[in-house]
Write a structure and sequence with these properties.
The protein has 2 helices and 2 strands, in the order αββα. Strands 1-2 form a two-stranded antiparallel ribbon. A hairpin with a 2-residue loop joins strand 1 and strand 2. The chain has a domain at about 1-25. It is flat and about 65 Å long. By secondary structure, it is an alpha+beta fold.
């Protein structure tokens, strides 16, 4: 059955509901083209930002706080692990 489904021609399908399986076919409908396929948007020229200028957004502030906490936890975990190693080595 899997090979039958993979080998179906275009616009053909099977519909299964409970134990009932029904083959279907769909007619091809050629729709008229009303618009161009891609309309390229004109963007205004952007001024280069200064190297020292920073923009802070609410999400940027939250991410900064997140990284400060994550780095603090990492350093605390690393120092706790080194204390454990030092205590184990001295015995």
């Amino acid at each position: 059955m899997a090979s039958e489904i993979q080998g179906l021609p275009d616009l053909r399908a099977y519909l299964k509901s409970g134990n009932l399986v029904v083959p279907l076919s769909f007619p091809y409908i050629d729709l008229p083209k009303r618009h161009e396929a891609l309309i390229e948007r004109k963007l205004p020229a952007q001024q280069p930002k200064e190297a020292g200028a920073q923009t802070v957004t609410a999400s940027g502030t939250a991410m900064s706080a997140f990284w400060r906490v994550a780095c603090h936890r990492r350093s605390a975990t690393a120092s706790a692990a080194s204390d454990t190693t030092t205590d184990a080595g001295s015995e």
